[in-house]
Design a protein that fits this description.
Elements: E1 2-5, E2 10-17, E3 21-25, E4 32-37, E5 48-52, E6 55-60, E7 65-70, E8 76-81, E9 92-94, E10 97-101, E11 108-113, E12 118-120, E13 126-131, E14 141-143, E15 146-150, E16 156-161, E17 167-173, E18 185-187, E19 190-192
Length: 197
């Protein structure tokens, strides 16, 4: 169970994303809080729930659109350009932005202002964008003002300055690691990567 503090009480929630419907449930009772239709062919990313400027929002990446919904009402706060088919990496927060990426057949990385409203794109609402070496399955990790991600499912690591998207290092091969499906983890000031072999 996850919960977010609201002005009414502590709201427990569960998010269920289906191909054609997005549903938010009360995780204690199973009662549906709201649902909205989705026009998305595929998506496996875990939605990100964040509080920003007094509003709890849930960011859901997708092929056609990245959307942020008001967690309490289900209203769409903003819609951004979509990612790729098979969106698997989950979005992460850095300060007042959400970082969304996908790496199947393309390499988009979008830093989107959490305070954005309405329809936004690369020319209006994106803090920055990048288009190289993104992950197919692993989600990114954020630490020390940097976002770390692998290229496809390979042991090739990129780190960007999370404030502006400029590369700290770009597609550096990591010796001794094979295929990566697990997301990088940061602990005690170190970045950990786990390969399948």
């Amino acid at each position: 169970m996850q919960s977010v503090k609201t002005n009414r009480a502590r709201l427990p929630w569960s998010v269920l994303v289906l191909m054609v419907t997005f549903v938010v449930l009360n995780s204690r009772t199973g009662v549906e809080l709201w649902r909205t239709p989705r026009d998305e062919p595929t998506s496996w990313a875990t939605p990100l729930v964040v509080s920003f400027d007094g509003t709890n929002q849930v960011v859901v990446p997708g092929t056609n659109r990245i959307r942020s919904y008001d967690l309490e009402s289900g209203a769409v706060l903003w819609r951004a350009e979509g990612l790729t088919v098979n969106c698997i990496p989950s979005p992460v927060r850095f300060e007042d932005t959400v970082l969304c990426m996908s790496g199947y057949r393309a390499n988009p990385v979008y830093a989107i202002a959490l305070g954005a409203l309405g329809d936004i794109g690369k020319d209006s609402g994106f803090a920055w964008s990048y288009n190289r070496g993104t992950p197919y399955v692993p989600s990114p990790a954020v630490s020390g003002g940097q976002v770390y991600f692998t290229s496809a499912n390979s042991a090739v690591l990129t780190s960007l300055d999370a404030r502006n998207g400029s590369p700290v290092y770009d597609q550096e091969r990591i010796a001794g690691l094979g295929t990566l499906y697990a997301s990088p983890v940061v602990a005690a000031g170190r970045l950990y990567l786990q390969s399948r072999c």
